[in-house]
Amino acid sequence: MRELIAQTVRDMPPSGIRRFFDVASEMKDVVSLGVGEPDFVTPWHIREEAIFSLENRRTMYTSNAGLMELREEIGRYMSRKYALEYSPKEQVLVTVGASEGIDVAMRALIDPGDEVLVVEPCFVSYRACVLMAGGVPVSVPTSARNDFRVTASDIAPRITPRTKAIILGYPNNPTGAVLERGDLESLAALLRGHDIAVISDEIYSELTYGENAHVSIASLPGMYEKTIVLNGFSKAFAMTGWRLGFACGPEEIIAAMTKIHQYVLMCAPTTAQYGGLEALRSGDAGVQAMRAEYDTRRRFMLDEFGKMGIDCFEAKGAFYLFPSIARFGLSAEDFCTKLLYEKRLAVVPGTAFGQCGEGHVRCSYAYSIDSIKQALSRLREFIGEL
Amino acid sequence: MQNGQSLQREILTLIEKNAKLTAKEIAVYLGAEESAVSAEIAALEKARVICGYGTLINWELTDDESLTALIEVKVTPARGKGFSSIAERIYSFDEVKSVYLMSGGYDLAVIIEGKSLKDISMFVSDKLSPLESVLSTATHFVLKKYKDHGVVFGGREQGDERMIVSP
Fold first, then answer.
1. How many domains does one find in chain A?
2. Separation in Å, CA of A24 to nearest CA in chain B
3. pTM above 0.90, yes or no
4. A chain contacts of residue B30, beta-carbon cutoff 8 Å
C-alpha cells in the first residue's frame, strides 16, 4: 500500500520523554522527579472565576486573538513586569499554551529550507516545530562549563545567509539556567547586526530565584523590533491543563501568527481565558507563595546533591536541576533506565532535550519536600550500588 | 534574601506551617547559616513573637468526646482599663481557648472547649454570666470543623494526579 504518512512526520523521532513515560507508567510504585508541571493546583480564585464565567453563559468563541480584556491585561502585565509596551489590539495574541505560540511563530517565519538556531538543551517541541514548518533546525549546544548559558560565540559561527530565526528558552527547561542582563546584552550585540527573528520562550519568567528578576531580551535596545516573546499561564499560575498562553511582538509578525492561529484554532478556550484574566489581575500573591516554595525545594535538592557528591551547578530558574551523572560511566539514557528499573525512580535523561544534554539528567523539584526526600533516598541507594 | 524579605519573616513563614522543622533544615531551605537561624528563632521566642509550638489535631478522628463552642459576649468596659480586665478574667479559665475583642454586634468572642454540652452550659451559667461586667452571652456550638488554621480537616486524600513524566 502507498505510504500515507508524510515523510517529515515519519522522519521525526518521537519525543524521548514520551518513550520514557510509556515505560514508567507501566510500572508500580514509581517515584518520580520527572514532571514538567507544578504540583500546585490552580489557585481557587482563578478556578472560581472560570466557573463563574460558565455560569454567566460565556461559552462562545472569543475573537481570534483572544478576549480584548485579556489582551489589555497582558499588555499591562508585560509593562509592569518586563518594561515592555505592547498594543493589546495589534501586538498580543492569546494562544493555546505557549506551545501553540512556538508552532505558530515557526510557521509564520519559516520558508522551506530556512534555518532556525535552536539553543540546546531545550524544550522538546522546538526542533519538531521547526521541522513541521519545513525549516532546518540548527543546534546551538551549551554546556555545564557555562552553566548552560548560551553566549554570542556559541551562536555566531552558526549563522548563515539562510538563518531566519533563533529560539531561546530561558529560564531554561531542562537545565534551570537563566540569562541575566549582561548575558543578554552580549547576545543582543551580536543579533542586532543580523536580520534574524528572536523567538524568546519565557514561560518560566516568573520562576527565578535570587537577587535578579527575569529580564526579557525584547527589552534590550534594538531587540524589540525582532523579538517574539512567548509566555503563558501554565508555570507561573499552575494552570498547565488550561492550555493558555500568549505571544507578544512586532505588529507584522503577530498579524501573521494570528492569521495561522485563526485557521487552526479559531481562538483559545473561552473558559481558560476568563481564568487567565483573573490570574493576571489578582494572582501575584499566589505566584510569590509558589515561587518561595519552589526556592525552598531547590535549595534542599542542591544541598542533598552536594551531600551525595553529585555535581550540579546552582540553577536559578524554572523548577529543574540538571546534575551531571558523567562520573558514573553510564550514558544518560542508560542511567535513567537502570534507575527506573532498579529503584523505580523516574528522572529524565538530558539527551531528551538535545544531544548536548548527554551526561546529565533532569530532576524536577515541583514536588513536596517529602516526595523529594523519598526520591533522593532511592537515588542515593542507586549511586551507592553503581 | 530575595524580594526584600528578611530572614526573620522567612523563618516565621516556614515554621508557621511546620513547627517540626529544625534550624538545620530551615538553614538549607533558606540558604542561611544554621547558627543565624537558631539565633533568630531564639530572639523571636524571647520577644514573644513566637508564643509557642502546638500541634493541629483533628479530635473528631479520635474517641475523644470534647465539644467546642463560640460564645458572643457583651460586656461593659471598665473605666481606665477598657476591655482588658474583663478579657483577662475570662481568658484565665483553662477551658477558654481563645478570646478576641470584636467589632460589630458584640464585644468578646470566646472560644471554649468542654467535655460535654453540660460542661459548657455550666461554664456559661456559673462562671461567665455572673461576672459583673458581662451584660449578655450567646452560645453557639461547633457542629463540625471543616478547616482550622489553614488546614482542611477530613478532606479527600489528594494524590499526585500528574503524569509520571512530562516535558
1. 2
2. 7
3. yes
4. 296, 299
